[in-house]
Design brief:
The complex is a heterodimer. The radius of gyration of chain A is 24 Å and the shape is flat. Chain A contains four helices and no strands. By secondary structure, chain A is mainly alpha-helical. By secondary structure, chain B is mainly alpha-helical. Chain B contains seven helices and no strands. In chain B, α5 runs antiparallel to α6. The termini of chain B are far apart. Classes of the chains: A mainly alpha, B mainly alpha.
């Protein structure tokens, strides 16, 4: 007979513990959203979601006890996601299309508010 | 009969699920699981591009996003989050039963996962119909009101694209669950062969993770 595909079979209690932690984090993030903390609200919400996703990936999806190949594959997926966000946002930010970081907190599409370039629209001398 | 073929026959005398292109069931398991993960990495980037679009437009129109997100029902969103994470728990327990070769347990937990998935989709139907009723669907009849009426359509476009694609994944997942319930009913799985249930679990947990990010981004951040 062949050996078992994975030697690790987690006890039932582990899955219930992870589920409990996910529930606590869900209600924590709902409660945190009710308090106005400015920009920190977004960071808290995303950080809690990140922790929840990590719990699911490591234990529900068995990445914690898996082959180096699977661990590498998961890591690569996340790295490419970070690349996509980093390159996309560096492009938009370098064009000043968010109104920041030049004027942090400003809103709207700043390029649209910019005055028309000289020589267009208005006759010279006015 | 070649010595290799004899070896395989000796190792797996009667497992009908062993496919001949693999060396043994162990290699079949690791290959199919790796294949599933490669598919999921593609899915990460597939949903990731929508998350990126969401983030770009949110950065451009933060007030419109804030005003529009107040039209979502946080109570229903929280309820659905609990339901979906609960379905992930039953899915994980189904995989555990498959690892132990308990087909009845696999069937029962897959059925529970299927039911919870349908509760999630039913709540989504209620939410969607509410959006139609209140003219919050982007298009000529969109009427959120307020100073951000036009820009808010971007938010609701993202809302329907992301939750719609997520719901489509759940519908496909529900269909797959029926298939695997039928397989478990026919005592397909054993301690040697449970890869398909493991991969079904990976898919379902991935869909859960997408919602774990969608919920705060659409419902909670104002």
């Amino acid at each position: 007979m062949s050996e078992h595909p994975t030697s690790h079979i987690a006890p039932k209690s582990l899955y219930f513990t992870i589920f409990g932690a996910l529930m606590v984090l869900t209600f924590l993030t709902v409660a945190a959203a009710k308090v106005d903390l400015g920009r920190a609200n977004i960071l808290i919400a995303l950080a809690v979601a990140g922790v929840k996703a990590t719990l699911v990936i490591l234990w529900f999806m068995h990445v914690k006890h898996n082959t180096p190949l699977v661990k590498l594959t998961v890591g690569v997926g996340i790295v490419w996601l970070v690349f996509m966000f980093a390159i996309m946002f560096s492009d938009y930010m370098s064009r000043g299309m968010f109104g920041w970081p030049q004027s942090w907190g400003a809103t709207g599409l700043v390029v649209n508010d910019a005055p028309p370039a000289a020589g267009h629209g208005e006759a010279p001398g006015h | 009969m070649s010595s290799q073929a004899m070896e395989q026959t000796a190792a797996h005398p009667a497992n009908p699920n062993f496919q001949h292109q693999y060396e043994d069931l162990q290699q079949q398991y690791s290959s199919t699981t790796f294949g599933m993960w490669v598919f999921l990495v593609q899915e990460i980037l597939f949903f990731g591009s929508l998350f990126c679009a969401y983030a770009v437009y949110r950065s451009m129109y933060p007030e419109a996003y804030s005003a529009a997100s107040h039209h979502l029902n946080v109570a229903l969103g929280t309820f659905n989050t609990v339901v979906l994470i609960g379905s992930s728990l039953t899915m994980a327990l189904a995989v555990r039963c498959a690892q132990l070769g308990r087909n009845k347990g696999v069937f029962g937990y897959l059925l529970a996962t299927f039911m919870l998935g349908n509760v999630f989709l039913a709540v989504k139907v209620v939410e969607y119909s509410d959006k139609f009723k209140h003219h919050l669907v982007p298009g000529p009849h969109f009427a959120m009101g307020g100073p951000y009426n036009e820009q808010a359509q971007i938010y609701f476009s993202m809302y329907f694209a992301m939750t719609g694609l997520h719901a489509l994944h759940m519908i496909i997942g529900a269909g797959l669950l029926i298939f695997f319930m039928w397989k478990a009913y026919n005592n397909t799985y054993s301690t040697d062969f449970y890869g398909p249930i493991e991969n079904m679990g990976l898919y379902w947990h991935f869909v859960d993770i997408v919602w774990i990010f969608l919920f705060p981004m659409l419902y909670l951040i104002h």
